[in-house]
Design brief:
By secondary structure, the chain is an all-alpha fold. Helices cover 79% and strands 0% of the residues. The chain has 22 helices and no strands. Helix 1 packs antiparallel against helix 6, helix 9 (163-189) runs antiparallel to helix 16 (291-319) and helix 14 packs antiparallel against helix 22 (412-431). It is found in: Cell membrane. Residues 26-438 form the Major facilitator superfamily (MFS) profile domain. The chain crosses the membrane at residues 26-44, 64-84, 155-177, 183-201, 259-279, 291-312, 324-344, 350-370, 390-410, 416-434. InterPro entries: MFS, MFS_dom, MFS_trans_sf, Sugar_transporter_CS. Keywords: Membrane, Transmembrane, Transmembrane helix.
């Protein structure tokens, strides 16, 4: 883990090791959980045109509903991090995937816009999956006996984080296949059962040794055994000073990255909201492609995005995660701008859209693991969740601006360019202000 304490101590004991089989099982389950969390999250954006037609919403009203859902999602996401730092990583992962199941099942019963806003806000539990995953796996990989994963932890985590394009692919494919058969309500129900199965599988995973140590230290302090707590912390070379996790992420070396990465996420989610969450809307409204064809093209586009995760995970290990993220987002903004302004045929649209998605979502493979490296064990889940929560203010701002532009008569082509492409481009430059981090094993 990254040690952010200003007074590190020399450890005389080391944390228990995690076996190869357990490490790989935890990795595989984390991937599956993220796939179905994304499936649920993206499904709403993919089906928004169908839901809007069912309830007779205008484009402006549909954009407003999406924005209000982002507000509720942000509130839920912000609460997950401190909870996971308090209750544990394992319980946190069970909570997030259970939230995915609940949000999917309840969305199938949508009766009106107010109900949908309330239920889809629970999707914030599923969206928190990536922050909890990176917290858990960052700590597991630091003490694993699996040397293959330990040496290539960034690349391996990119496989987990690639659940975003895979989940998007699953959502688009299931909608294309099952929408005519079971309707949009049935598509939501399809995500419920895999999420429940994953929650049950996670019950068999171990808690991380780092959190177990923090829990022991906290218990000793609560029992009035402060000297024993200090001695135990010194033996493991960790900072024993009790502090609120939310305070810790704004102290010392952690503060700069908390501020920079939060703003980078906020601005980059202008692009995520426009080109990923509302991707089918961009293809249908901005480029004149039919809804049925947009589903097929979106599958192709996200298949390329999957390769982007693997590339950026590998490149982050080799060239440094911060720079790889920054250059990727800058290139993505340029490619999306070209797609919206100069691409006219279907082939050119798909090529530029795919490359834009490659460099938009791919850097998150490096970003999530980089975030986990920025914080100490006692505040890691809070830090990653806090930054992750800024995706929703970004989505809210993007939705509000898009709604205002559409209401004033702007075309979707102009809206996607000024909100999505420009936001993505700027987020890359913001990343250069982040501090590089050095990692050491727990």
């Amino acid at each position: 883990m990254t040690t952010v304490s200003s007074e590190p101590t020399t450890p005389t004991r080391r944390l228990p090791r995690i076996g190869v089989r357990t490490t790989r099982r935890a990795t595989a389950i984390a991937f599956c959980a993220w796939v179905f969390a994304v499936y649920d999250y993206i499904l709403f954006g993919t089906l928004l045109p169908e839901i809007s037609d069912r309830f007779g919403w205008s484009e402006e009203h549909a954009a407003l509903v999406s924005t209000l859902i982002s507000v509720g999602t942000a509130v839920v996401v912000l609460g997950v991090g401190p909870l996971v730092d308090r209750l544990g990583r394992r319980k946190g992962m069970i909570l997030t995937v259970s939230g995915t199941a609940l949000a999917s099942a309840a969305s199938a019963g949508t009766m009106n816009a107010s109900y949908l806003v309330g239920i889809r806000s629970l999707g914030g539990l599923g969206l928190s999956e990536q922050a909890v995953n990176t917290t858990y796996l960052n700590e597991i990989y630091a003490v694993t006996e699996d040397e293959a994963i330990k040496k290539r932890r960034g690349f391996v985590y990119s496989l987990v984080q690639s659940g975003w394009p895979v989940g998007t692919l699953v959502a688009a494919a299931f909608v294309a296949i099952f929408l005519p058969l079971v309707g949009w309500r049935g598509c939501f129900l399809l995500a419920t059962f895999p999420a429940i199965a994953i929650a049950l599988l996670r019950r068999g995973l171990p808690e991380t040794p780092q959190f177990e140590l923090q829990r022991r230290l906290r218990k000793l302090r609560q029992e009035g055994k402060a000297d024993e707590a200090r001695q135990l912390a010194a033996e493991y070379g960790v900072d024993e000073t009790p502090a609120a996790p939310l305070v810790e992420i704004f102290r010392g070396r952690a503060r700069r990255n908390t501020l920079v990465l939060s703003f980078a996420w906020l601005v980059n989610w202008f692009g995520i909201q426009i080109f990923s969450v509302l991707g089918t809307t961009v293809l249908t409204k901005a480029k004149g492609i039919s809804f049925a064809n947009s589903l097929v093209l979106f599958i192709v586009i996200n298949a390329v995005g999957f390769a982007g995760y693997l590339f950026h995970g590998w490149a982050g290990d080799r060239y440094g995660r911060r720079n790889v993220i920054a250059f990727g987002w800058i290139l993505s903004g340029i490619l999306f701008a070209l797609m919206l302004t100069v691409a006219h045929g279907t082939v050119s649209v798909v090529i530029l859209y795919s490359l834009g998605m490659f460099f938009l979502i791919g850097p998150y493979a490096a970003m999530l693991f980089y975030m986990g490296e920025c914080y100490d064990t006692q505040c890691r889940a809070t830090g990653t969740s806090f930054i992750n929560a800024f995706s929703q203010p970004g989505a809210i701002a993007a939705g509000a601006i898009a709604t205002a532009m559409l209401a004033s008569g702007a075309h979707w082509n102009q809206t996607a360019l000024l909100v999505g492409a420009v936001g993505t481009f700027l987020s890359g430059f913001v990343m250069f202000a982040a501090r590089s981090v050095d990692t050491v094993d727990d």
